[in-house]
Amino acid sequence: MIMKYLFGSIFAFYSSNLFASANDWQLSFQNPATDLMQEVIDLHDLILIMMTVITLFVLFLLFYVSFRFSAKRNPTPSTTTHNTILEVLWTALPVVILVVMAVPSFKLLYKQEKSDSYDMTVKVIGHQWYWEYEYPDHGDFYFESYMIQDEDLQEGDLRLLTVDNPLVIPANKNVQILITAGDVLHSWAVPSMGIKTDAVPGRLNETWVNVKEPGTYRGQCSEICGTGHGFMPVVVKVLPENEFMAWANEAKNNYAINEDIQPITSSENEEELVLSKNDVLKLEFEENKL
To answer: At what angle do helices 84-113 and 35-68 cross, to 10 degrees?
Structure first.
């Protein structure tokens, strides 16, 4: 009864909202924000139990063999060299164990790759050292997301995990996420969503997410990408659908490319410039000298 109460208390403690995000001295996973992450945790728990049973069994065999077949207790050892039944068992049982592990693993990996249908698509592009987010289904606008420096943090902000422009998506919607990079390898990871997908230059990787509860979810770049690798946080803000649509309409005006601006010309050569409201747009003029 005491052990049952103890294990129940430990389970309730680690399943509480205390671990809705990362905390000091945290054990185990963050609370799952998606069904996929819940399946990851379930698979982890299953494999952990199997590993624990196997480890204890092997440890028992080591102690038993050391005790039972020591020179004192077994002065005349057996000369048996083969045992067909035993050899079949110790070959077949590991195969069965691996199959039991592999089948749910493969199913989960396949499920993480694609969904049957999507309600919207966002594109994530990794740069040194910031993220770029595009919304092709909501006006084809984009913006960059940079980490807030220590001196600019407000009360309640998390150091190294706060950005100026988070990725915003609706709750309870299948969101397709296309991930690539513009320079070197990156990895877009949000632990509570069960997402960790590499961003590879010249390659488009795909994953998806369906977050049940509105809130703010955090992660980081998980592929060493240079000196600023530790300063590429991922922040995902999940809103109810009506609030997301209001945000998307406002963001469309704030970030969308303005196609009505007249081209700017130079006296010696003409270059058509597309002006954007993004703060990080860089314009470079090259003069051709004959």
So the answer is: 160
Q: Contact at 8 Å (CB) between 23 and 30?
A: no
- DSSP letter at 265? B
Q: How far is it, in rounded angstroms, from Cα 186 to Cα 219? A: 13
**What is the CATH number for 61?**
1.10.287.90
**For 198-216, how does the pLDDT look when each residue is reduced to its tens digit (9 = 90+)?**
999 999 999 999 999 999 9
Domain encompassing residue 193 = 120-255
For residue 156, the SS3 value is: coil
Residue 264 covered by a domain: no
Provide Rg for the chain, Cα atoms: 27
Report how many domains make up the chain: 2
Phi then psi for residue 63, to 5 deg, are -65, -40
Q: What is the pLDDT of residues 18-73, one digit of tens each?
A: 434 667 787 888 889 999 999 999 999 999 999 999 999 999 999 999 988 888 88
